[in-house]
Amino acid sequence: MKMLFAETPAPKLNLTKKLLLLNWPFLLLVTAIALVGAGALYSVAGGALDPWASRHVVRFCFGLALLFAVAFSDIRWWLRGAYPLYLVALFLMLLVPLIGVESGGARRWLGYGEFSFQPSEMMKIALVLALARYYQWLPPEKIWRPDALVPPVLMIGLPLLLALAQPDLGTAMLFAVIGGGLLFLAGVSWFYFGAVIVGVVVALPHAWEKLHDYQRERVLTFIDPERDPLGSGYHILQSKIAIGSGGFAGKGFMQGTQAQLNFLPEKHTDFIFTMFAEEMGFIGAVALLALYLLTLVFITYMALRCRSTFARLVAAGMGLCLFTYVFINVAMVTGLVPVVGVPLPLVSYGGTSMLTMIVGLGFVLNAHVNRRVTFRREEAGTLW
């Protein structure tokens, strides 16, 4: 059935008014975090802009252009296009095992020539938009009904299973946390979350048997890193040594021995927080985490001010994505969770992950700019 949308009367916003409505302190926070990343990558390269710091800055500037484009776009476009975007992202993920590019034993990228990207990154945004659209039209009295959970569970489960097949446990975890978090924020009963937790516990023995050898090794290494100090436990042991050696005030910019002498692996991507903590110490690490925390406070504030369910859940979903990235990365490098290969947002080197995060933050600003807009269904019928 055709779905028509109409918004409550609201003044038309020209570009000048949109610029005034933009949350500029939030943008300054995002820029500050990206500059921390540029400085860290400059240090990792031994005081050189190439190959990482300069590209990081260029990508961030390009990402800012995308952020403004998304922030100033009509929110109704994204409401109408949420499901088509999700289907495109799902189709691209389905192509990965067929024609994807393999790297490091995993097939996660689609590429042509020198250009490559991860469809799973696009899916993180598409999943948030699709779930937000679904709950925009779901009557509150139906949220608790079991049949109302089928569509969102399928939306979450399909990309999650495809991510596990790549294999990409970190991305699968992100899908689960973001999707589950949005269901909780939408008002789904605690009973269903409890049932899922019990089901996961019961399925753990079977899931352990299905894990790849290297994934099992990561879990065992997480439990006891010293069982293989020069092999699977090397990453986390070197990370803990680097963080501990930084002390309270750190060794100083470009003075971290674990990073500069190449004892620390993946120091420009997954373990960049370790390198930063070694050089800047406890003070620097807490300051960086405080920037992330303040960013999440701003996102929460902007989400709560939105009148429509769609805008509120989009902003909250992107905030969940940022929180999950930061939490898993920091917990990973400090030995609190197994190593799963999740970058630190806006700080780690990486093109697709950075642009995805900046576009996601653009959707937060879009929700904020359009916070007074609400929608109504013109026709009753299917929720789809």
Automatic annotation (TrEMBL):
Keywords: Cell inner membrane, Cell membrane, Cell shape, Cell wall biogenesis/degradation, Glycosyltransferase, Membrane, Peptidoglycan synthesis, Transferase, Transmembrane, Transmembrane helix. Its main location: membrane. Pfam families: FTSW_RODA_SPOVE. Its EC number is 2.4.99.28. It is found in: Cell inner membrane; Membrane. HAMAP family: PGT_RodA. This is Peptidoglycan glycosyltransferase MrdB. It comes from Methyloceanibacter superfactus. The gene is mrdB.
